[in-house]
Design brief:
The protein is mainly alpha-helical. It has 2 domains: 11-59, Arc Repressor Mutant, subunit A, CATH 1.10.10; 66-186. 71% of the residues lie in helices and 0% in strands. The protein has 9 helices and no strands. It has helices at residues 16-34, 40-47, 51-57, 61-84, 90-105, 110-117, 122-145, 154-170, 174-186. The chain is elongated.
Length: 191
């Protein structure tokens, strides 16, 4: 028996894509709240599904984590691709994207922790490489515009995101200051 999620559709009424999406959303929420050690039955309950339904979609917690990481990497890749084409220009689009991604990560170390655990997973590596390529295109456009310092790399962005997460643990809300400082460090026209 499955329990419908409050305000949502019963599990049995969802198609395969809907079930997968609900499980990934529930897993992200559960792992953010309880850490990567959260048991699969907790994910199932959060999704309004039975544990067997979870394992039919994701045969192990590792495959569930990999799917969650890949989904987030693909979203970051799409966001970077859209930012390159933004009418506001590459620098303004990069800054907006940095703020958006940093805000998503506040209080949610799931992505970084899961990515570290899955660093040898070939599908995760492929998704990470594609995401890195998209962000590199955005950085190249920012350099060509003249606002982004010429030596800025995607590793600098990873460091910036790590620093904002760490600052948030030191002092609530400090991630904003850390991000401002990081953006200033990337800007050729910094204050």
């Amino acid at each position: 028996m499955t329990i419908p999620v409050a305000g949502g559709t019963c599990w049995s009424e969802l198609d395969a894509a809907g079930k997968r999406a609900r499980l990934l959303r529930a897993a992200g929420e559960v792992f953010a709240r309880s850490g990567l050690g959260a048991p699969m039955p907790e994910v199932a309950a959060a999704a309004g599904a039975g544990i067997g339904s979870v394992y039919r979609q994701f045969p192990s917690k590792r495959t569930l984590l990999a799917a969650l990481v890949i989904e987030r990497l693909e979203q970051a890749r799409e966001d970077a691709g859209a930012a390159v084409l933004s009418p506001v220009g590459p620098w303004a689009a990069l800054v907006a994207l940095l703020w958006d991604h940093a805000e998503r990560q506040v209080g949610d170390d799931v992505f970084a922790e899961a990515l570290a655990c899955l660093s040898t997973d070939s599908e995760v590596e492929d998704a990470r490489a594609a995401t890195t390529t998209a962000w590199e295109r955005l950085l190249e456009a920012g350099r060509a515009e003249g606002r982004l310092r010429p030596d800025a790399t995607t590793d600098d962005l990873r460091l910036l995101f790590a620093a904002t997460r760490a600052a948030g643990r030191v002092e609530p809300g400090a991630w904003r200051r850390m991000l401002e400082l990081g953006i200033d460090a990337l800007d050729t026209q910094a204050r």
